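Lecture notes, continued. The same structure-token format from the folding unit now serves as the input rather than the output. Read the line below as a description of shape only.
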């Protein structure tokens, strides 16, 4: 939105949902402004903390945008991790940075027994166990670790297959899967609708999510809400999100990831325990909690109105 158009609006509080619109807080909006900052993955990549595949000019542009954040009256983050990153990496007043966790949508839930069995039958081939991954395409999602973990599992005798949702594998990832001998056991479903995504979560035996970095971690939360056991990296935001409801390991620790995933896939008692913990953990991320956090922040900025 252009500053000229933004000046036409009147409100007690303005809420910009992404940092790329932060310049409006400085030049256009006549009122208290809140800006949501989901993550600072680009700034972490610029420091060399995580892999980066984008253009260098995008880092420059992103830095310019984040400099405008200091003109907001409040910045809201979905995790304590992003809250700390914002205070560390950006020139903002720490007192203006607030934590409001996001909510998992109600559609992410365990299906009834018959629906779950149908979902599993649609994903499985023979006796194989289904490992799921959701990918938005960033290199920090760490697809090579997923493929190496799958190969390690199969070498251990675990009949595992990988079902991927979202952005399809790059050429180099397909080449790696071929070199590892697991390409035939990878199914790339691409982007799917919301209801189909719920069915895939319910049909999978586990979610594997060894990301290098997250600002929140939607797939682990959605999987837990569907009753699917989670194995993920110990990246700070993910560790914060899952607590003791998932098994975590270093994003490059293939031995630990494959050992954890192998136990979840082969030990029914462990999988059931992780399912119970995951459902309990996901229930804490309710819409009421999120709305209450925003309501309190808006009221504070609007002077109680």
């Amino acid at each position: 939105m252009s500053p000229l158009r933004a000046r036409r609006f009147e409100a007690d509080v303005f809420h910009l949902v992404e940092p790329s619109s932060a310049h409006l807080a400085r030049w256009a909006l006549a009122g208290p402004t809140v800006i949501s900052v989901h993550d600072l993955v680009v700034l972490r990549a610029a420091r060399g903390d995580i892999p980066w595949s984008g253009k260098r000019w995008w880092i420059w542009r992103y830095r310019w945008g984040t400099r405008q954040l200091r003109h907001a009256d409040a910045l809201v983050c979905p995790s304590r991790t992003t809250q700390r990153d914002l205070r560390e990496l950006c020139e903002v007043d720490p007192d203006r940075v607030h934590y409001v966790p996001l909510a998992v949508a109600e559609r992410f839930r365990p299906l009834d027994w018959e629906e779950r069995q149908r979902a599993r039958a649609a994903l499985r081939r023979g006796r194989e166990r289904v490992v799921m991954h959701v990918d938005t395409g960033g290199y920090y999602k760490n697809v090579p670790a997923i493929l190496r973990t799958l190969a390690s599992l199969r070498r251990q005798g675990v009949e595992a297959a990988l079902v991927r949702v979202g952005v399809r594998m790059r050429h180099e990832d397909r080449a790696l899967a071929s070199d590892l001998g697991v390409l035939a056991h990878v199914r790339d479903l691409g982007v799917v609708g919301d209801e189909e995504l719920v069915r895939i979560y319910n049909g999978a035996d586990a979610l594997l999510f060894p990301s290098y970095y997250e600002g929140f971690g939607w797939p682990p939360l959605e999987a837990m809400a569907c009753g699917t056991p989670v194995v993920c990296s110990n990246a700070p935001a993910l560790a914060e999100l899952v607590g003791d409801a998932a098994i975590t390991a270093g994003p490059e620790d293939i031995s630990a990831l494959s050992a954890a995933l192998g136990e979840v896939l082969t030990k029914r008692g462990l999988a059931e325990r992780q399912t119970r913990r995951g459902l309990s953990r996901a229930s804490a991320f309710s819409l009421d909690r999120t709305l209450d956090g925003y309501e309190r922040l808006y009221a504070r900025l609007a002077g109680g109105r």
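Point for the exam: The chain has two domains: 3-103+287-301, 113-283.
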